[in-house]
Write a structure and sequence with these properties.
heterotrimer, A mainly alpha (652), B mainly alpha (304), C mainly alpha (218), A: mainly alpha, B: 304 residues, mainly alpha, 12 helices, globular
């Protein structure tokens, strides 16, 4: 715990240094990096020793002492925060021009520290303070390019969404505190599970409040606006870890509520499934690289929710093997997504600055010009598609396995069917994600450059490449050593499931041994084949020619298949699920002049939220009469409120 | 049979037999069309010839173009090692390997599509896009089938599933429906008619063939070989689902796969290629069939 | 001897009433200064009433501080800003003066009623203390709400703060000097901030009516 404190103070120092020494961002950067190293180390140490630590810092009323602590769940998220945070800082070192680095690093350091505080907070007030600091700093970073109107608009949306979410979180803590008679988390636990109705109310409030932060459908609308607006290292941080703290909040709440009923799991399955599907479909429709990645965050948070949902179903049916695999899969996917999404956002940032655009239709051929960035992006792309031999496969495999096991073990057919539906759904989402990333990688990095900007692209700066390479190494490492990675989530998963670690889960262990073997064989076979190819081609004629153009003359880069064309047939079968606006003018006559076919894919979730908001505004519009303008009037409201409080409290 | 010799038999079956299947399909189609057709061994000769050729590469391509065929072949081979061809337990079998099976196919496809886009040709881009669209729909259908079989047999590894099916009645609604859906997936995964015409000559209509327009020499050999191996693996799976007694009996298993190939040849002779939008309906239909199979399996399951 | 403390507290209420009823800006500021002097003397009187040695260093410091800030510094600041901003020397009420006086009477009555109910768990030296504190808070609020000029709002805020100060004298028995000094500091900072605000309002809108701020509404 003292190491965590050291990391926090180092982070604060880093923020201070980079804020004060604007011209020399080095000091703040190194302090921040050191903070991340220390924090990640401390988290890892606590996690692997399975230790629970806590400290109480005295503070004057009204809220009393501030409580901090780290149990396995906290330690795990601490590791996530500091690992992804450190990589983002490293990347930021190469990303920001010197003049702007100071402010950005200051806020980033503060954001990382705030996230750490959220994770180790042990009472509602500390949690909320960390939560709000996290929001404020991330908001400042989202609107970092404040001369950009789009960034300001995104910031406003983020502000509103975040506050709506935090109101619900406040209500949640209010409910829990009423039940427990204290604001401390250990009191929430000690008070025992609230009675059924209250517990479900708490769960629903937590789900709604934390889902906003996590970016679950349909309250994800702010995410694809805010994350692309932020500078890329910040996008990596926001998508990589900050939204996961919504998941943390939900999991933490679950620990207060006692054994969950199956209905909660079903709710999470529904929301998670919708998020995963909506996220990936909308991602395919995007042509802005960072916006596309942001929608994939919605998808992946959905997968995490599916894992948790299956875990809850397992708890309800008393199947420890399901519970453990579900929670472990969800948690591991949380870490994995932080790693590969961080990597992808970083690569997208490198593309945006070095190739002049984030619009896929303006890129192309970048793998030749940015070989390291391109190769690392491919690793991230394969990982996020949930394909072996990388980490995304391992965590999705756990979720698959949990869903299959639950489907086979659950006595009730409805529960079994619900969890079995997760399997093809995950497959669909995985297939669509693969299609999406083939599109991104193929259009941006392969082929010929479509614009002069892309043709003149340069490789990313050293620190940026280093950060991406470290992220990729972590992705590979978890992919080839899943058993070691699972040790990270064993503690928190066991704590959540309320059972001891299922070390006796032989079939799971066998799978985790077989996966690295298969992966090793896969790599060996591939290398052998490549060697055989080289041997076969030795001494033979190897020619170079333009791409075969099927008899057409003079193919130009503009004739390459575009991202929109690639996406169109993939999205086609799902048009009923999306709100598609098509504008089409067919060519007319024998010598047609102009024709066009435009398609705008809208988000039905966003439309739903907008409708609800409009209803709320309409209902509350009579209250506008209260707002007249004179300062005195507002003071009168305060005065009347004070009088009312006095009259209400005193006579009793 | 000892584990080692089982492994050896499996590897031999998996490497030697596959090119026979496209040959067989070609022969069946020729017979149905009233021609005598090429030799059954023609695909072997084609592979042999390709392996002894040089290659021509587009000036646009990168290492991804070369990696595509290699990874695709390796992944298909590994997927084959998950099937209990030679022993009741496949060499790499583990609980949950059905996910790995599907994911390995996905990995191969991912890199093949990337390799197609690497050329910058719009024909190859178009083909890759269609492949992506079809496979995104075929993958859930395949997993629905595998889930159905897992529920029916109570096992989570392909070896366990195929073994467990043997002790169940031969004809149940779930199994029939699952076999039907798997057949549809097989046609889609292997780019056969009604989904894709492997013998087409018009680039605009190609899917699988369109993606590999620029590959030549050993790379093309790897692709053709991988395609044949995928056909063999999926055919063997379908054969084992219909007749689970085949598992762990290598000659019977191989014969089953060949029979499936003959049926594929008959289907190809009897049907025409579907229009593109119809292909998607066909695949969604396969998923629906799989879903009904799953429901049937769930209802057939005794409450534990 | 609680008579002196009672007298001071009664005067405090009356001065508050005068602030509500006067129509001249300078009178209002002067009344506020008078309240400052009364407040400075109050801690001494309360100690006397409680039977403690009335004069020692902390209390004298507190008294001197209160008088220096509330009776001298802030009124001078206000007078200067009245002069510099060229404000008309009349109070501009939103509610008529008669209405204000009536309201003030009601509020004072309410304060006494509340003071009766609000029994403090320890002796405070004077029965008038709580009513005086509450009535000053309420009257301060009334001035803030019912007057248009920014200067009067500052005066109202001061009256409100004075009420809080009196209440603090009653409650903070362990560390009175610390609490009171911090309150004094608060007031000073608050008035400074308002002074700056007044300056900006007069520069932006060319007069000191807070009406102009109404244009800022949605």
């Amino acid at each position: 715990m003292s190491l965590v404190a050291a990391a926090l103070s180092l982070g604060a120092l880093g923020a201070l240094l980079s804020g004060l020494l604007r011209g020399r961002p080095g000091a703040g950067f190194f302090a921040g990096l050191l903070a991340c190293a220390v924090g990640a180390g401390a988290g890892l140490d606590l996690l692997l020793r399975g230790e629970t630590a806590g400290v109480l810092i005295p503070w004057s009323p009204p809220f009393g002492a501030l409580a901090f602590g780290a149990d396995p769940l906290s330690s795990f998220f601490l590791v996530c925060v500091y690992v992804v945070g450190g990589l983002s800082l490293l990347y930021a070192r190469g990303y920001f021009p010197r003049a702007r680095a100071g402010a950005a690093l200051a806020w980033m350091n503060l954001l990382i520290a705030a996230m750490a505080v959220v994770v180790i907070a042990r009472d509602a007030i500390t949690f909320l303070v960390g939560w709000e600091v996290m929001f404020a700093t991330s908001w400042l970073l989202v609107t970092f390019d404040d001369e950009d109107a789009e960034a300001r608009a995104a910031g406003f949306t983020y502000l509103v969404a975040s506050h709506a979410g935090v109101v619900l979180v406040l209500i949640l803590f209010g409910l829990l505190a009423r039940h427990a008679g204290s604001l401390r988390f250990d009191a929430f636990v000690a008070a025992g599970a609230p009675p059924g109705g209250l517990a479900t109310l708490c769960f629903a409030t937590a789900l709604a409040g934390f889902a906003t932060k996590a970016g679950l459908w349909p309250v994800h609308g702010w995410l694809p606006q805010a994350h692309p607006a932020a500078p890329s290292p910040v996008s990596a941080l926001l998508s990589g870890v900050m939204i996961k703290l919504g998941i943390y909040g939900l999991l933490r709440t679950l620990t207060f509520l006692g054994p969950p009923p199956a209905a909660w799991g079903l709710a999470l399955l529904a929301i998670g499934g919708l998020s995963a599907l909506a996220g990936v479909l909308l991602a395919i429709a995007q042509h802005d690289l960072k916006r596309l990645l942001a929608y994939h965050s919605v998808e992946n948070v959905g997968i995490i929710a599916l894992g948790i949902g299956v875990g809850i179903l397992g708890q309800a049916t008393h199947a420890p093997a399901v519970v453990w695999a579900g929670y472990a899969g969800a948690l591991l996917h949380t870490l994995n997504h932080g790693l590969f999404k961080g990597l992808l956002f970083q690569a997208a940032g490198a593309v945006g600055t070095n190739a002049g655009s984030r619009d896929l239709e303006k890129l192309g051929g970048l793998l030749r010009r940015m070989p390291a960035t391109g190769a690392l992006f491919l690793i991230g792309a394969v990982a996020i598609s949930g394909l072996p031999p990388l980490n995304g496969f391992v965590s999705e495999w756990l979720v698959y396995l949990a869903a299959l096991r639950e489907g086979m073990l659950a006595a009730e057919r409805g529960t079994a069917a619900a969890s079995l539906v997760v399997v093809p759904l995950l497959a669909l989402v995985g297939g669509l994600a693969a299609a999406c990333f083939v599109k991104v990688f193929g259009v941006a990095f392969l082929g010929e450059p479509r614009t002069p900007g892309a043709a003149a692209a340069r490789e990313a700066a050293g620190p940026m490449r280093a950060a991406m390479a470290l992220g990729a190494v972590a992705c590979v490492a978890i992919g080839i050593a899943p058993r070691a990675a699972l040790r990270l989530v064993a503690g928190p998963a066991a704590a959540l499931s309320g059972t001891a670690i299922v070390s006796a889960d032989q079939s799971l262990a066998a799978g985790l041994r077989a996966i690295p073997l298969s992966v090793a064989l896969l790599v060996a076979c591939t290398l052998a084949l490549l060697a055989a190819r080289r041997w076969l081609l030795r001494g033979r004629a190897v020619g170079a020619a333009p791409t075969w153009d099927c008899g057409y003359v003079q193919a130009t880069p503009r004739m390459q298949y575009t991202a929109a064309s690639f996406a169109s047939p993939v999205l086609d079968p799902f048009e009923g699920l999306l709100s598609v606006q098509a504008h089409r003018e067919d060519p007319q006559g024998y010598f047609p002049s102009a024709a066009r076919d435009e398609r705008h894919i809208g988000d039905p979730g966003e439309a739903l939220v907008r409708r609800v908001l409009r209803a709320i505004v309409f209902t509350l519009s009579p209250l506008r009469a209260l707002q007249r303008g004179p300062v005195q009037l507002y003071l009168l409201y305060v005065f009347l409120a004070l009088l009312a409080l006095l009259l209400w409290q005193v006579p009793s | 049979m000892s584990a080692l010799s089982g492994l050896a038999v499996q590897v031999v079956l998996l490497t030697v037999l596959p090119p026979l299947l496209p040959g067989l399909i070609g022969r069946v189609k020729s017979w149905m069309a009233g021609r005598s057709g090429p030799s059954l061994l023609q695909p072997y000769r084609d592979l042999f010839r390709l392996l002894h050729k040089g290659a021509v590469y587009s000036r646009t391509v990168t290492w991804v173009f070369v990696a595509g065929p290699a990874v695709s072949l390796a992944a298909t081979f590994l997927a084959g090692l998950l099937l209990p061809l030679a022993s009741s337990r496949a060499p790499l079998a583990f609980s949950g390997d059905l996910i790995l099976f599907v994911a390995l196919m996905g990995l191969g496809r991912f890199l093949m599509m990337a390799a197609a886009l690497d050329t910058g040709s719009s024909f190859e881009g178009m083909a890759a896009s269609r492949e992506a669209a079809f496979s995104a729909l075929a993958e859930p259908a395949l997993l629905l089938v595998l889930t159905t079989l897992a529920v029916a047999s109570g096992e989570l590894s392909l070896s366990g599933i195929l073994g467990g099916l043997g002790s169940l009645p031969a004809v149940t609604p779930a199994r029939l429906l699952a076999a039907g859906a798997l057949g549809a997936v097989l046609l889609a995964e292997n780019a056969r008619i009604p989904i894709d015409d492997p013998a087409t000559h018009l680039e605009l209509t190609m899917v699988h063939e369109g993606m590999i327009l620029d590959h030549s020499g050993p790379d093309l050999a790897a692709i053709e070989y991988a395609a044949a191996m995928k056909l063999f693996v999926t055919s063997a799976l379908l054969a084992a689902v219909i007749a689970p007694g085949l598992a762990a009996r290598p000659p019977a298993f191989a014969a089953g796969a060949l029979v499936v190939a003959v049926v594929v040849g008959l289907v190809e002779s009897a049907t025409a290629r579907l229009r593109l939008p119809r292909v998607k309906q066909f695949l969604v239909g396969a998923s629906a069939l799989g879903a009904v199979a799953l429901a049937a399996a769930l209802f057939a399951r005794g409450t534990p | 001897m609680s008579a002196v403390a009672d007298l001071l507290l009664a005067l405090l209420i009356l001065v508050g009433l005068y602030m509500v009823s006067t129509s001249r800006l300078h009178a209002c500021v002067r009344a506020s200064a008078l309240q400052g002097i009364l407040l400075g003397l109050l801690p001494i009187a309360l100690r006397w009433a409680n039977g403690i040695v009335p004069l020692d260093l902390p209390v004298v410091t507190l008294a001197a501080g209160a008088i220096a800030i509330k009776a001298i510094a802030i009124p001078r600041l206000l007078v200067r800003s009245i002069r510099e901003a060229g404000v008309r020397r009349e109070v501009e009420p939103m509610v008529s003066l008669h209405g204000s006086i009536l309201g003030a009477a009601v509020l004072i009555g309410l304060a006494f009623w509340l003071g009766e109910r609000m029994v403090l768990p320890f002796p405070v030296g004077s029965k008038l203390l709580v009513p005086a504190a509450i009535s000053n808070v309420l009257l301060g609020f009334l001035i803030v709400v019912a007057r248009r000029k920014a200067i009067t709002q500052v005066v109202g805020y001061l009256a409100l703060e004075n009420g809080v100060f009196v209440f603090g004298l009653a409650l903070a028995r362990q560390q009175p000097i610390l609490v009171e000094l911090s309150v004094l500091l608060d007031v000073l900072v608050g008035v400074f901030v308002m002074g700056i605000a007044i300056h900006h309002i007069s520069r932006t809108f060319d007069h000191l009516d807070t009406d102009a701020l109404a244009s800022l509404r949605e």
